[in-house]
Hints:
Radius of gyration: 17 Å
Strand order of the largest sheet: 1-3-4-6-5
Distance between the termini: 35 Å
CATH class: Mainly Beta
Structural class: mainly beta
Largest sheet: 5 strands, mixed, barrel
Low-confidence stretches: 111-118, 130-135
Helix content: under 10%
Shape: globular
Strand content: over 45%
Mean pLDDT: 84
Number of helices: 1
Amino acid sequence: MNKVCLIGRLTADPEVRYTQTNNTLVASFNLAVNRRFAKENEERQADFIKIVAWSKTGEFCSKYFKKGQQVGITGRIQTRNYEDENTQKHYITEIIAEEVYFADSKKEGENAFSQYGSAFADNNGTEFAVTQEDDDLPF
């Protein structure tokens, strides 16, 4: 099974491009994910992980995700390699996003979707938003 779940902050706004073959939208961005523990007397470290979102999921990311926002990503790890013009081989590991979520709390500030309690998009292009306030829930 190849399944990844991450929560982190965007290091920059998503970059959007389109494939040459069939003009499919691809959004890519880096996610700073804090490590769980820090060594004594040291600052907590973060890993910077490349995320790639295709089609409708990528469109959602490009539309609503902004630098500094905390987001959740579920997806899969993908590795690839290529050879540059100097015949040097390069290896790339990235996460292919299958579902994306907002993970900021309302108290942490406004975001592009601040009118919703939470929102996410899945790989089928379906956007979901919970618009009901916590105080109005029946439980």
